[in-house]
Design goal:
- It is a single chain.
- This protein has 211 residues and is mainly α.
- The protein has two domains: 55 residues, Arc Repressor Mutant, subunit A (Orthogonal Bundle); 154 residues, Tetracycline Repressor, domain 2, CATH 1.10.357.
- The chain is built from nine helices and no strands.
- Helix 7 packs across helix 8.
- The longest helix has 25 residues.
């Protein structure tokens, strides 16, 4: 059977899901440089032309794949912190989970943060909402630690903290943590980051009580 004959076997939504799943598998196995519309079409048994009925272009497919990755990270972190009440434990669980995902899925993680959409395809609200949802997990935990913080300050603090964790993550994925002397022990770096952050939070709380 020719690939075109498959068109009526699946709904448009099913075809999109198949294409995104196939793209993810190619990305994981072969890396971003080997990912192409042609390979995705071959993997799902459709023509390249049919893919362009589902996605505007390859950037659109990669953006959809990134949304799938962002969902996976969010669900992983949410499930880790759900049974935890202590804010420090929650931050530690999120930090470790984030880095474990990145080091276990380096191609997916790199694509999520390194792929840039052309200007004519911005903004992409569905992608922005997913990244915002990740930060809201951090904000909710920091609000437990400093409940009096205004929303703007809370967002700034969450961005600052997670920016540090993201930096550790980037170094871990690129193999550049060796200068720290414990290249594979990213948990140590996370704990140092969290300890410093909690120390600063404690100092701020004491200053507020004295004022």
């Amino acid at each position: 059977m020719r690939p075109m004959g498959r068109r009526n076997l699946h709904t448009r939504e099913q075809q999109r899901d198949m294409a995104i799943a196939a793209a993810e598998l190619i990305l994981v196995r072969e890396g971003i440089d080997e990912l192409s519309m042609r390979k995705v079409a071959q993997a799902i048994g459709y023509t390249v032309g049919n893919l362009y009925l589902l996605f505007q272009n390859q950037d659109d497919l990669l953006a959809a794949l990134n949304e799938r990755t962002a969902d996976a990270i969010y669900l992983s972190l949410r499930d880790r912190i759900e049974p935890l009440d202590d804010p420090r434990e929650r931050l530690g669980a999120m930090a470790r989970g984030y880095i474990e995902f990145a080091t276990g899925n380096p191609h997916r993680w790199r694509l999520l943060f390194e792929h840039q959409l052309p200007e004519e395809m911005k903004p992409r609200p569905s992608a922005d909402a997913r990244i915002r949802r990740l930060f809201e997990l951090v904000e909710a935990t920091l609000a437990m630690l400093e409940p009096r913080l205004k929303a703007e300050s809370l967002r700034l603090r969450a961005t600052t903290f997670w920016g540090g964790i993201h930096g550790i993550c980037s170094l871990a994925v690129s193999g550049k943590l060796s200068w720290g002397g414990r290249s594979s022990d990213y948990r140590l770096y996370c704990e140092e980051m969290i300890a410093a952050f909690f120390g600063a939070a404690s100092s701020r709380a004491k200053a507020v009580r004295r004022s």
